[in-house]
Amino acid sequence: MKIRKILVSQPEPANPKSPYFDLAKKYNLKIDFKPFIQVEGVSSKDFRQQKINILDFTAVIFTSKTGIDHFFRICNELRITVPDTMKYFCITENVAFYLQKYIIYRKRKIFHGKAKFQDLIDIIVKHRDDNFFVPLSEPHNAEIPELLDKNKISYTIGTLYKTISSNTLNVKDFDYDILVFYSPSGIKSLKENFPDFVQGEIKIAAFGPTTACAVEQEGLRLDINAPNPKAPSMTMALDLWLKEFNKNCR
């Protein structure tokens, strides 16, 4: 079996220097980008009904760039000026850097983990006197409130956006050798859009422990997992896997 085509369940990168493009060139692959989920922002009216006052909080926890976008969108729509004293806790350094789109980065108190929420919890407990706002999607990862409760952190979850299965998937013949997923919602969408899907020789790659768990819960085989000790990113994990796969095929 030769790996020819990969489907990544995310929008195509706007950056022409994306590692995915380098990967395609290095291994002579065709990589398609097709989101399996779509994000719908919660209206400011619906957010008000959650009876959450953002100014009551001294810190915000971000688990994604999408969460950052919708947090500042809601603040803008409600004409809320986020105080300079607000602390920001981000799941990764990459997510933390994304804050530069909305704030003067070097003048704010910003903290970040390595990849897993457990890493971030270790930092959050050092600031347990703060009152945390956690903007999440609906549905969201149950691990987050569980770890916050376990560590007796004062927090409130606010639903700022919803992730739903994309209804634009029209791939008639699933002619891909590897499917790459970044969220449990993507796995759910695969099953909803292709109820007769049979994995067979198709390889499945998952980013993050909850996505990996969702793969196995759906009775599918997980072949490539990231992040891992050798590969902190999905493209690095794919690179290592393809290198080993091609070596064994010779």
Write a structural description.
It is a single chain. With 250 residues, the protein is an alpha/beta fold. The protein has 2 domains: 5-36 and 168-249, Rossmann fold (3-Layer(aba) Sandwich); 40-163, Rossmann fold (3-Layer(aba) Sandwich). The chain contains 9 helices and 11 strands. It has helices at 19-27, 44-48, 65-77, 93-98, 117-124, 143-150, 184-193, 209-217, 234-249, and strands at residues 5-8, 30-33, 37-41, 59-62, 87-90, 109-112, 132-138, 155-165, 178-181, 203-207, 224-226. Strands 3-8-7-4-5-6 form a 6-stranded mixed β-sheet, sandwiched between helices. The chain has a 5-stranded parallel β-sheet with strand order 2-1-9-10-11, sandwiched between helices. Strand 9 (178-181), helix 7 (184-193) and strand 10 (203-207) form a beta-alpha-beta unit. Helix 7 packs parallel to helix 8 (209-217). The longest helix is centred in the C-terminal third of the chain and has 16 residues, at 234-249. It is globular and about 60 Å long.
